[in-house]
Amino acid sequence: MNINSRLVSKNLSRFKLVTFDVTDTLLRFSRPPEMQYAMAARHLGCQNIEEQALSVCFGKHFKRMARDYPNFGKGSKYDWRWWWRTLVMDIFRDSHRHLSEAMLGRVADQLIEDYATQDCWTKIEMAERMVDLARVHGKQVGIISNFDPRLSYILEAMKIPTDFIVTSYDVGIQKPCPEIFDYALNLCNPPVLPSEALHFGNTPKLDYVGAKRAGWASILVNVTCDGQQGVLSDPEINPGHVFANFEEFIRALETTEMKW
């Protein structure tokens, strides 16, 4: 074992569990949603599809659906598939009014299937190494994500091994609620205390603050230069826990003694 490995081991010694958010933490979209949506529509024979129009409508309708039917419709009379189908159809209705209702339904169903495959996703740089690093040092590895039930298929397709997956839809609790982090602890074998758990995510409130309020340690990764100013001004966030990417965090693990 070299010096770097010993320091990594020391830095991670208090933890028995390491968990990760998924979107923009471990994985990102392989192409922007408007491009993916346009590709699906064109594949099904739709003409005159404008990506910019889709982009404008995507944000508006996503926010509306998240507000009116939080957690992908969990707890309502509708399920996650209806949630995504409605979102896609409303985006296209608003941006491409020449498409028939039957075609809108076909496009929505196609996209629901597409986003469960590896074609729509790519791994974040060095994320896989961080997962491997946690495993090499004997940690249980889990996922905690505000996501629908397709996540297990996505992670399998992307070849990211985990001990468990907690999605907000399956458990009916969304980050940043502490209860979703408590739920993850209950899946651990052997048992893990909150103080022995470390969570990685890219969203200040949902990931970092949520985990900290649950008694966990937390690290923010993939924070852009533009986003760092706002993040670092938040009194609940330790500037020493904010990293531009996994490479920067792993370098810190290997060269400095971390303060949790």
Automatic annotation (TrEMBL):
<dbReference type="GO" id="GO:0005634">
    <property type="term" value="C:nucleus"/>
</dbReference>
<dbReference type="InterPro" id="IPR023214">
    <property type="entry name" value="HAD_sf"/>
</dbReference>
<dbReference type="InterPro" id="IPR044924">
    <property type="entry name" value="HAD-SF_hydro_IA_REG-2-like_cap"/>
</dbReference>
<dbReference type="InterPro" id="IPR051828">
    <property type="entry name" value="HAD-like_hydrolase_domain"/>
</dbReference>
<dbReference type="InterPro" id="IPR011949">
    <property type="entry name" value="HAD-SF_hydro_IA_REG-2-like"/>
</dbReference>
<dbReference type="Pfam" id="PF00702">
    <property type="entry name" value="Hydrolase"/>
</dbReference>
<protein>
    <submittedName>
        <fullName>Uncharacterized protein</fullName>
    </submittedName>
</protein>
<dbReference type="InterPro" id="IPR036412">
    <property type="entry name" value="HAD-like_sf"/>
</dbReference>
<dbReference type="InterPro" id="IPR006439">
    <property type="entry name" value="HAD-SF_hydro_IA"/>
</dbReference>
